[in-house]
Structure formats: structure tokens, C-alpha cells
Amino acid sequence: MNRKTLHPATLAAQALGSTDASTGAVVLPIHTATTFLRDPDNQYRRGRSYGRADNPTYDQPQALLTALEGGAASLLFSSGMAAAAAVFHCLPRDAHVVAPQVMYWGLRNWLRNFAEAWGIEVEFVDAAALDALRRAVRADRTRLVWIETPANPLWSVTDIAGAAEIAHAAGALLAVDSTAATPVLTRPLDFGADLVMHSATKYLNGHSDVIAGSLTTTREDGFWARLCAARSSGGAVLGSFEAYLLLRGMRTLFPRVERACRSAQQIAEALSRHPRVLEVLYPGLPKHPGHAVAARQMTGGFGGMLSVRLNGGAEAAIVAAARVEIWKRATSLGGVESLIEHRASVEGADSPVPADLLRLSVGIEDPADLISDLESAIGSL
Questions:
Q1: Strand order across the 195-198 sheet
Q2: pLDDT at 1 over 80
Q3: What stretch of H or E contains 358?
Q4: Do residues 124 and 37 both lie within one domain?
């Protein structure tokens, strides 16, 4: 059967249907070799020379991610931060970059602390407002527009097609951090993006046991060649076992994300009615300012992430997080277990996150139990 006619959920579940040719195993082997034999005439006709660039265990997860994103090629990295940093490292030293005010705090801090040393000027804007994005882009200098949608942890939504039009009119690339949406819900390349980044630690792996990152491109051009060289020469590579675990996790991506979306929607609706909840931030709620855009570019749900703001400020939020029993008080997101975290404590004084906010990563537990646990913790304030 033609792979292009299969549903993405089928491609993911079967990891593109590949088996081990030598044994018939339905799970591909882990290759731990760091180096590979030359041919007698000193050539590498089998296409492998050294494990840092040519690890065979990368082939299948990269191919699967490329198929799911509808791209031309993908690269695995040692972490989401390594994948993102590689994009910025490959820009010209005098590049101007536009980035969102609301984004993953680790990357925001890295840009603020290290981008200037690399000769890159970063301008932070409200990326959910296309007019602000348009005003920030400079036709003579902007080389990259970086967006994240939905944006962690306020879950604001950026119009990808609109951002792509703005970036391309200035001759810039558009890169999208699509970690929260995953290719289950959004394929940014279909809306005009040039690159898609994932913290594969999160939903792609889905089991809180791998640190990994990825990039997928819409075309294999000169910039992509620079990224490939940067990964190899910079050494930001994934271990063989981690690549194997990532592929294992990706095979259950669709049922995990679909269940998390359904549960998150129920939780958001239930908490919106709670008298001690000041606000629920979730694109699936019609009153969310980005709901209409999210409905256009997200298919099958609005994600498994939401945030809640509680009456009573930071103290109430911290106390509520301390009183949950099913939710785990931990950083990260996208695993099968549900996590809760007071984000302002993590992000520091310059964070745009309100002090009364709790970030929720919805897992695959029964939503009724998750709602009951939250309502009990909040109701006891």
C-alpha cells in the first residue's frame, strides 16, 4: 500500500512499517557502534563513517517525524534546547531575530543571555498580534522569525500562516516550536513554516524518560545543510538507546495526545465554573482570545496543556499545588502522568507569568479523577 494514502496514526503506530531485514523483528535494533568500516578502496559506500553523524538508530525516528510533519527531512538532537540553539547558531552573526514574549522560558533566557555574544539581536514581541510581528520585522536585517504556538505557559496562539507571510516578505525564515501542539494537532509546514522544532522530551517521547529534541525542514536547502553540519560538528547528538526509546514513544503518540486533549477540554470547562478560579487559559475555550485561530490550525483538539489562575495570588496557587494527590508536582509536560507546577517560582522575576498561575500537563488518567483532585485541592483554600 502507498504510504502516502495511510493515516498518520497508522504510520506512527507501525513506525512506518519497517522491520529488521536480517531477523524479521518488528522492533528495529539499537546500533551502538561509534565507527564503521571503510571499503577496501577507502570509501564509505554503505553511507556510514562515524556514529556522531551517521547513527543508524536515528534513521527510523527521523523518517517517521518527517512523514508526520509532511517535511523533507528531520534531525534528532540531544535536547530541545540543543535543537533550538542550533538554528540560532547557524544564522549570520549580525542577524536580527524576532521572538515571542511568551515562550519556553529556557530558550527565552538563553536568547537574552547568549544571543548578543553571538552577534544576534533578538526582539521580543507579542507574537499573537500579527501587527506587532509585522512592525518588528526588518526587511534589511531580520533573518528569522521564531514563534511558539500554543505558547508555554499562557497558551497564546499565533497565526502560523500569517507569521509565515510576514517573515517571507522580509526574506526571513519562520521557525515554529510546535512542542505543545505535536504533529497530531498541527503541521506548521502546511501553513508556510520553514522549520519545526520539538522538545521531543515531551509528547513525542511521552514517557518522561528521554531528553531529546528535533528539527524538521520543509526543504533540504543550504540552511538545512548548515544545521546538519552543526549537529555533527557541535556534538549535540542523541544516544542510541534514547533514539530507540523515542521511536517507541512515538508509536503511541496519537492515542496519547488524543486522550490528553479530550481530558484537558473537560478539565478546562470544569475549572472555568469553579468559584475560586480566576481564569482558565486554554485555546479550546471559546472565550480564549486565540480560539478562532487555533480552531483553524489545530485539528482534533486543542492540546493537553492548560493553565489556571487562582483567587488568592501566589500563596493560594502554591498551597493548591501542595494539596493535590493524583497530579504530580514536577516540571515538564507531555508524559502519561499529569503534572502541576507553579510556573512563576521556576521562571523568575522577569517572567511574564502571573504569580497566581498553575500550569497543568494533562496525562492519560481518567479525567473525572483529575478533576476531582483539582477541585478538592482548590476548594480547600
A1: 73-77, 213-217, 195-198, 173-177, 142-148, 96-100, 121-125
A2: no
A3: strand 357-361
A4: yes
Cell numbers representing residue 53 in the block: 553523524
Identify the domain boundary among 250, 271, 299. 250
Helix or strand run (H / E) with residue 246 = helix 240-250
Measured between alpha carbons, how far is 85 from 102 in angstroms, rounded to an integer? 18
Q: Which residues are catalytic?
A: 52, 104, 177, 202
Tens-digit pLDDT profile for residues 200-225 = 999 999 999 999 999 999 999 999 99
What integer pLDDT is reported at residue 375 of this predicted model? 97
Query: What total of structural domains would you count in the chain?
Result: 2
What is the value of pTM for the model shown?
Answer: 0.96
Judged by DSSP in three states, 333 sits in coil
User: CA nearest 132: which of 101, 103, 160, 107?
Assistant: 101
Gyration radius from the chain CA atoms? 21
Q: pLDDT grade, residue 5 (50/70/90)? A: confident
DSSP 26-94: SSPPPP--SB-PPPTTS--TTS--BHHHH-GGGHHHHHHHHHHHT-SEEEEESSHHHHHHHHHHTS-TT
Q: Which three cell numbers stand for residue 140?
A: 534589511
- Using DSSP's 3-state secondary structure scheme, residue 207 falls into coil
CATH number at residue 318: 3.90.1150.10
